[in-house]
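Q: A reviewer asked whether we had any structural model of the full assembly, not just the individual parts. We don't, so I'm hoping you can provide one. Inputs are below.
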Amino acid sequence: MSETDTVLPASQPMTFTQKVMSDLWLSVLATLAIGFSHVVTGLYDTGVWIGLAVIYVIVAVGYVLARLITIRILPDLFWVSIVAMLVTWPGVPGSSQVREAINGVSLLPTLTPLMAFAALGLGSREVQLFKQAGWKFILISFLVFFGTFMGSAIIANIALFFMGT
Amino acid sequence: MKPTPTWIIVLTVCIAICVGQWIGIQRIEFGIARVILLPLVFAFIAGLLMNPAVVPPLRRIMREGAGQRASRIVGAAVMPVIVVLTASIGTNIDELVETGPALIAQEFGNLGTMLLAMPAAVLAFKMGRESIGATFSIAREGGLAFIFDKYGPNTPEATGVTAVYICGTFFGTALFTIMPPFVASLEIFDIRALAMACGTGSASMTGACATALSEEVPAQTELIGALAAGSNLMSGVSNLFIIIFITVPLAEVYYRSLAKIRSPQAEVSDV
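A: Here is a predicted structure for the entire assembly that you could use as a starting point for your response.
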């Protein structure tokens, strides 16, 4: 869902360092919220915080890479994914320790803050647009999401069947 | 007007997180099928109820601008989700390579979007060329940008894609937590096929979908995460090309033939 800044006004251009610092600061807030989310669920052993620290470093390296490579065709997510894959790849020095640390973090409490921020992030313009879109578009979008999921699932299932795996 | 202090935003988010996590995972049985509601759905609803854009009286506490800052943190909060998911790719690479052809084939499953939704838009709701923008894909950032570029911002196609984009922003992720375990509980599909279908090119939808599936089949959590992350990564790279070269040209043809069914005599004027 909304992994973009939705209605940000065109702000004055930031320097490289400012951009990276701003990304890193937002990541700190996000990471703390994810930690809090674990604590609320009753998961508060040190493993969670070690895992989050490791994840934070991976995200930070990904961000810096994304900012260094100035041809912005691929989103930040791509670079973060690449870094995450590299440092957890079997055979890469330290990868098993990194994997173990990341395993201390559960996906479920990690998603909750994301959606809390997303809900708060909806501006009045989006709320207005949603009201204008009307029930027809709402029903259509249900079909759109259902169609995407089922389309992929059906093709994948048929392919797996013929591959006999 | 003074901008909202950051601590108010953080406090609000913490309350929403508490609401979500305390309600926890809810399972609802429907005879043969099952619906699972994850905490993130409740946190989202709680967040909406504390959003001044949704509940206007709250503007006294939270001024405009709070939303903008919160939505910038969304971009940062999605990164840990993607790290957790992609961290399982390496150890499951054999399985990913083995299912590779299926993984590539299902990227074209996006065409199912149009197949299902376009007839409803054209025949049932009598929509015009808005249908093309609304149903060609799940209308995430790449698709939105392409439609605006190809048709221009003040066209019916742009209206269609914007409407579905906004609807997706409101409940896309929630749908992707409810739908997958429901389909899985029917026990028709291979769990690996459903895990691959989770990868839409949207990280939060992929994460939500993989988590919800893992709740249904806990023993396969690692594999589900790896397949979903692999498929999502592939979508991120391939989606735009599929949209440009296959989906949108096909949507044009499909729209025209559906419009002819709707009114066989009249020439479709706006083609």
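A: Points you may want to mention in the reply: The CA atoms of residues 75 and 113 of chain A lie 22 Å apart. The two ends of chain A are 32 Å apart (CA to CA).
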